[in-house]
Amino acid sequence: MNVLRLFFSALLLIFLDVSCASVPIQKTALGIPYNAKFLEDITAQWLDVSDGIQGVFIRIRRPHIEAWALRVDLSHPSIEIVMNAPSNSNGVVAGIKVSDFLRSYNCIAAVNAGPFSFSGPEDKSRRPAGIFISAGVEVSPPDSRYSALVFYRNGTGAVIEQKTITASNKAPLYWAAGGFSMILDGGEIIVPPERTARHPRSAAGVSKDGQILYLLVIDGRRPGSAGATEMETAFILRVLGAAQAVNMDGGGSTSMALLKDNGVILVNRPAHSILGTAERNVGVCIGVRRRR
Question: Model's pTM, two decimal places?
């Protein structure tokens, strides 16, 4: 009886998983994978995605890692960054899937950003953990334990420690999404050696001059991609060209969506569901779109 119950429970979960799969997955949307035997063998071989945006799909054999990255030229005249609008004045945002965010905000590409706590039912409200600034308005205050990806009013980006954000220096910040720890600073990997946990990862980096944004997602918890450590994540971003980088909210939240052939697709397989076909409603998303 217990075996049958487990069997039918598994069937139900698979049915629910598939029934939520409204967005197709196209792993090669950023080109055929660049195959590397070891992490140290990877190089940046970019594919043009759109004006000012390039992408790459990386597959590593040892350890098994599949990763997708975008390179966004922040100085391109038609490119702009966008994040969620707050749902109220109490530091809360509406839970949203990355693919739905891409549609709602007319983006070309989008990824999940910072961690969050639930502020209601799972499909409703989210409270960003740490700094969140949306179009110049502070929605959530800094958390001195963590770092953040920020974009200034002049269009450049940076990764900074949230403890450095004060009332007197917030004015130049137009967008800001809190993450976890800074993992790359001045081109140097700064991950403590004891942090060896392997998970799906979302991470972001910027070039030394703040003109190039790098967005990275790494699949995990599935055959073919075991996830990455923070050190491996930092290494990949450094190879891609980032000088600074921050580890964002990973695990089941990790999702990257693209607009391709006038349709929305996922490039990775989220670990939120059994079959990796259903996205999680997350808090803050980062989108890249054309200026209106």
Answer: 0.91
